[in-house]
Input
Amino acid sequence: MALAALGSGSIGLSGCHQVKHPGPRDLVRYRGPVRLALTAVAVAPGKEDGTPWDGLGQLPTQVFEGLRAPLSRSVLGTLFGALSRGGGSEVIGAIANLLPWTANAFSSGIAAPDVQVELSLNGKLLARSPMVRNSFFPTWSNVYSGPITIHEYDQLELKAVDRDIAFHDQIGVCTSQGMPWVDSHHGYASAQTFQCFGQLWAVALRLIPLASGDAAVAEIALAAEQDGD
Output
């Protein structure tokens, strides 16, 4: 599933006499103030240089080669969707057929990182998660921002680090410009919204509009068939 062009394929609601309600496969973009809720992230099973997050030695060759290969947009979409639906177990099941090497990587005793995530808007810290030890798929239930308004050229950033006793390893960052596109049912930001770099593969970030009903929805974009890129 790929996203239809957001510029021409979206439907503006302001000024319309009839409001189109989003369907189960549509993406929406809120208008007005929102709160952000971070619920989970997915971290690759090792560093880019082929070493584990903790400990010494090298990762198995198959894992190292897998880490070096870029993820396609379709795989990223699967990761984002699975993470927002069910966390780590859902992600592993969803990508096992797409990336066969990950099944062994996540279950073979490879050391997982101690993950902490910071949410920022235009460089200003909005929230910092508690650290979750030894997890490729950490989850949280209490990481919220205060009310914020996200304008067209604002930069939203989620940065993850592996916290150690002396030196912290940078895991990666996911960034978005402007108000994120979210799924119409639960309000989780879509894979199309973010550019992710490093070993931070996906984030489950929920947007909570402070307006209600149609007043909160700015635009609707219809999901189209994915090209698998």
Observations:
- The chain has one domain: 2-224.
